[in-house]
Design brief:
243 residues; single chain; NADH Oxidase
């Protein structure tokens, strides 16, 4: 297959390693959700490099349905203040544009509980300390102190498959961030503030907010960045059908 000149140029600009499987395995093994950031902003060219790579994400019929808002400087601070005000308000939070899971059961519930306790332990939160747990949950709205936020939307007409493609896109953003030394955390929790986000960034009604992420240079000295969530073996998820 002959590549387009744009794709050839993009691949040349980004570069390729000699052992691509090993590079990918290393990125996946070392990537983690960053919950503490250094104060300095990331230079715009580095953010553009990260998002240029993610633009190679495959999508349904090559529709590339993701629409992305990236905040820096005063825009990040305005978003942070608005999210915290919405979270602290006595009024109920708005329902997300895309429904959250209705339940967690079995191994999924076990994994969710395990990673939660890992987080609390790294943050020095004792079991049963509901006040400290609530403050840690509020870190989502504080964007974990990150200097940048990334907000991902898609057109409502794309339905579930638009959201699936956005998930593929965010996965590649996370890997690109890891490759560039950028810390990032994906945040479905921001979807419960879709009304605030829609108003702040003039998101039209024919567009749905899918999820967001906070990013910056990671603070590797903070204990909250020290734990790694466990992955189940491939055999827990894969079933072979040979006959």
């Amino acid at each position: 297959m002959i590549e387009s000149s744009e794709r050839v140029a993009m691949r040349a600009a980004l570069g390729e390693g000699p052992d691509q499987f090993t590079v990918l395995a290393d990125l996946l093994a070392h990537r983690s959700s960053c919950r503490a950031f250094l104060p300095g902003e990331i230079p715009r060219p580095l953010i553009e490099k990260m998002l240029t790579l993610a633009q190679l994400t495959p999508s349904w019929a090559n529709t590339q349905p993701w629409q992305v808002t990236v905040t820096s400087g005063a825009a990040t601070e305005r978003l942070r203040e608005a999210l915290l005000a919405d979270f602290d308000s006595p009024e109920p939070l708005s329902p997300p544009d895309l429904p959250f899971p209705t339940a967690y059961s079995g191994a999924r519930l076990d994994r969710r509980r395990e990673v939660g306790w890992q987080l609390y332990e790294s943050a020095g939160i004792a079991k049963g300390d509901r006040a400290a747990s609530a403050l840690q949950a509020r870190e989502n709205e504080r964007l974990f102190g990150a200097p940048h936020a990334l907000l991902i939307h898609t057109k409502r007409e794309m339905g579930a498959y638009g959201a699936v493609d956005c998930g593929l896109y965010l996965s590649n953003v996370l890997l690109a961030a890891e490759a560039l030394g950028i810390g990032m955390i994906a945040q479905a929790a921001l979807a419960q503030h879709c009304g605030v986000i829609r108003e702040m960034f003039d998101i039209p009604d024919d567009t749905v907010f899918v999820f967001g992420a906070s990013f910056g240079f990671p603070d590797k000295t903070d204990p909250v960045n020290s734990f790694r969530s466990r992955r189940s073996p491939m055999t827990d998820s894969v079933f072979w059908a040979d006959e």
